[in-house]
Design a protein that fits this description.
The complex is a heterodimer. Chain A is mostly helical. Chain A is built from 15 helices and 4 strands. The chains are: A mainly alpha, B mainly alpha. The interface between A and B is large, with 41 and 43 residues.
Chain lengths: 338, 384
């Protein structure tokens, strides 16, 4: 039972990141009808927003180390610490959560620039061409990041407050063996909030209503005198922000490097297709489902029976679902049928 | 569109053969005339020709062709280990095994089309890649890669009584060692044969059927045609080409690693085909050559070389130029590749072949002073 709960928890945080990326991906697909292979790169850019902020916050000055009296020793002390003392240290400690504030405008800008600068010329082209041009863009983005930040992963520790593990087991009355890192718990909550926010935004605002109408029938909405193009552009920006934020918060779990996006892209595409192209609920469900399945498959007991299953489970599930339910779990009729 | 006549095909074939066989000569001035690179031209040419039979003719975009490349490589190396250092069984087994894989994967994947097909093939390729790294280590030797060893059985060789040599014997084709130029010519001849077969397929009724599937699969199914046998055949053929390319990789360098199956490798062959021109005969070969050439040249350039090139500039300018260009060469070669890729897809969706024919068109029209009828203008149909 303990192991069971632990695996579900493990799967949930992995699933959370899948769900967030897939959500953005399917949002873009549902509104603009574009297959965006550069979406993983957006996730990676988000992660590097956090790296950048951390670098900015820790711009340092050489200060004489007073503790060493034998000779003149110097140590690097961040300006923030010099100016504000304890407060400064705390700010640096919270670099990752603070990066959210940086990532939102940056990712919005990146998303809008991408849509206006490149993607909008590809609405009328075939899906194959959309895949290819965004694939090229993804390579370019990741190489630029590599040129600036190097090829090695950059470790990003979570805030002091959230290091260590939560004793989830005793909280649920299951015993001591179920422990879970605080940061992953935070990530899970964060993913939940973002997903809820996106759903509320689409469900309960006028803007969201127009967007949903546009997803159903773009032409009619346009005929009603609504500038649906502009709204879709904004939706692209929002999707970029969502995956960027997913990237920011993921940095303490996996140190980001430049090909982080590519690693996630393949999986998130599988998630979207399993969930059903263009279905938001499908993407989220499939994200969590595949995350949980993956963590169950990596249990030793399962691996003894079926060796190697942890490596292929996601793809295997994708193959089975696509063959049994051609439109994915919750795919709408008429999307990508041609 | 140029109408294909047997005569024109014969001329094309002759030009292609001569061009390929004389590659060591005419590539020498641009510094590409060494065997290692030439072999890669030929091998990736075969890979791209095969990919084009699927993507160019049927429009099915497979993102998992690297899996067949990997399977071909592994089979060939196993054939070297178990049977004989002769390349003939290695290639035959490589092609057959990857063909069998293609039958299984194709049978399942081709039940869907469009992006779903792409994702399915991608899923299968990633599965093979992950398995090759983990559970199948006894067969694939995991991260180290499959290599030849001194104490391999090589049962056929022993049976015929090939004289034992010091160290691991080289791969050979009836006694001819498969390295250097002989390796290149072996690959080149196979590429020419592959090109000929692909040309026959393009011109055959079977090829016409595939083109019909590409241009309107709905209408084809309305006429009562079951498309799947046709697309499956195309898939298997292109999988076998990939297997051939994979086993040739093992022939020229008897080593097989799982990274050949990674999806970036599948992306690379898509890129080659697009760059050259999808659905054209010669395009994929050109695309493969161009990419491999630039990969070689660009990744060899480093800061010092750039400093040398721009030494005529004043110092402050020189440093700036070198710093900017340094991003695009050496380690940053992929940046150039990505940009090139985007530019091609945006401005020249038909690839280089379309670019050439546009230039030729313009020259022709100018020389005819505008009197030429538009119908007669040579224009290669842009690929999807």
């Amino acid at each position: 039972m303990d192991a069971f709960v632990l695996q579900i928890l493990n799967g949930l945080d992995k699933g959370g990141s899948y769900a967030l990326i897939a959500l953005g991906l399917t949002l873009i697909f549902g509104t603009l009808g574009v297959v965006n292979f550069a979406h993983g790169a957006l996730f990676m850019l988000g992660a590097f927003c956090a790296v950048t902020l951390k670098k900015i916050l820790t711009i340092s000055k050489q200060v004489k180390d007073e503790n060493i009296t034998f000779f003149d020793a110097y140590k690097e002390v961040p300006y923030l610490e010099l100016w504000w003392g304890e407060t400064g240290t705390t700010i640096i400690d919270f670099a990752v959560p603070l990066s959210i504030l940086l990532a939102i405008p940056v990712m919005l800008l990146v998303g809008l620039a991408m849509e206006r600068g490149l993607i909008r010329f590809f609405y009328k082209r075939t899906h194959a061409e959309q895949i290819l041009v965004t694939f090229g863009l993804a390579i370019v983005l990741q190489e630029i990041v590599k040129a600036f930040f190097g090829a090695n992963p950059v470790p990003m520790p979570p805030p002091e407050l959230l290091t260590g593990s939560a004793d989830v087991g005793s909280f649920l009355g299951l015993g001591d063996s179920v422990i879970y890192p605080w940061w992953r718990l935070a990530y899970l909550v964060f993913a939940g909030i973002i997903i809820a926010a996106v759903f509320c935004f689409l469900r309960f605002t006028t803007f969201g209503m127009v967007v949903r109408a546009g997803m159903q029938d773009r032409e009619t909405v346009g005929l009603l005198g609504i500038n649906i193009e502009r709204r879709f552009t904004i939706v692209f920006g929002i999707a970029a922000v969502v995956s960027g934020l997913a990237g920011v918060m993921y940095t303490p779990i996996v140190p980001p490097d430049y090909h982080l996006g590519m690693d996630f892209l393949v999986l998130s595409f599988v998630v979207v297709v399993v969930g059903g192209m263009g279905s938001l609920g499908g993407a989220v469900t499939a994200g969590f489902l595949l995350g949980i399945l993956q963590s169950f498959a990596s249990m030793n007991e399962v691996k003894e029976i079926l060796p190697g299953i942890d490596q292929i489970i996601i793809f295997l599930v994708a193959v089975v679902i696509l063959l049994v339910r051609p439109r994915g779990l919750m795919g709408r009729k008429g999307v990508m049928e041609s | 569109m140029i109408t294909a006549t047997p005569r024109k095909d014969l001329i094309l074939m002759a030009i292609f053969t001569i061009a390929v066989l004389t590659m060591p000569i005419w590539l020498a001035p641009i510094g590409a005339s060494y065997p290692d690179l030439l072999q890669r031209f030929a091998i990736f040419g075969i890979f791209a020709i095969g990919f084009n039979i699927l993507f160019g003719l049927t429009g099915y975009l497979s993102f998992g062709h690297a899996a067949f490349l990997g399977v071909g490589s592994y089979t060939a190396v196993w054939s070297f280990k178990l049977l004989s250092m002769s390349v003939v069984p290695a290639i035959i087994f490589g092609v057959i095994t990857s063909g069998l894989f293609a039958v299984v994967i194709g049978y399942i994947s081709l039940r869907r089309s469009g992006i779903y097909f792409s994702i399915l093939t991608l899923a299968f390729a990633q599965m093979s890649y992950n398995l090759a790294y983990s559970v199948l280590t006894p067969i694939t030797n995991g991260e180290t890669g499959l290599q030849l060893a001194l104490d391999d059985p090589r049962s056929l060789d022993n049976l015929v009584g090939v004289a034992a040599t010091e160290g691991i014997p080289p791969t050979n084709f009836f006694g001819i060692e498969m390295s250097g130029y002989s390796g290149f010519y072996f690959c080149a001849v196979l590429m020419i044969i592959g090109f000929y077969i692909s040309m026959r397929i393009f011109r055959s009724p079977f090829g016409m059927m595939l083109k019909a599937v590409k241009s309107n699969s709905n209408r084809m199914s309305y006429t009562g045609l079951n498309m799947r046998p046709y697309t499956l055949t195309a898939f298997v053929i292109s999988g076998m080409y990939a297997g051939l390319a994979g086993s040739l990789m093992a022939v020229t360098d008897p080593l097989a690693g799982a990274e050949r199956m990674q999806w970036t490798a599948s992306g690379e062959v898509v890129l080659m085909t697009i760059l050259g021109g999808v659905g054209t005969l010669i395009g994929p070969v050109i695309g493969a050559g161009v990419i491999k050439y630039f990969e070689n040249i660009f990744s060899a350039i480093n800061e010092n070389v750039l400093q040398g090139i721009f030494s005529f500039l004043p110092e402050f300018l020189q440093d700036g130029v070198v710093a900017v260009l340094g991003l695009f060469v050496g380690e940053g070669w992929h940046l150039t590749l990505g940009l090139l890729f985007m530019l091609i897809v945006i401005f020249l969706p038909g690839g280089l072949v379309e670019g050439f024919s546009r230039i030729i068109d313009r020259i022709k029209n100018r020389s005819k002073n505008g009197e030429a009828d538009p119908v007669g203008s040579a224009k290669v149909q842009p690929g999807e």
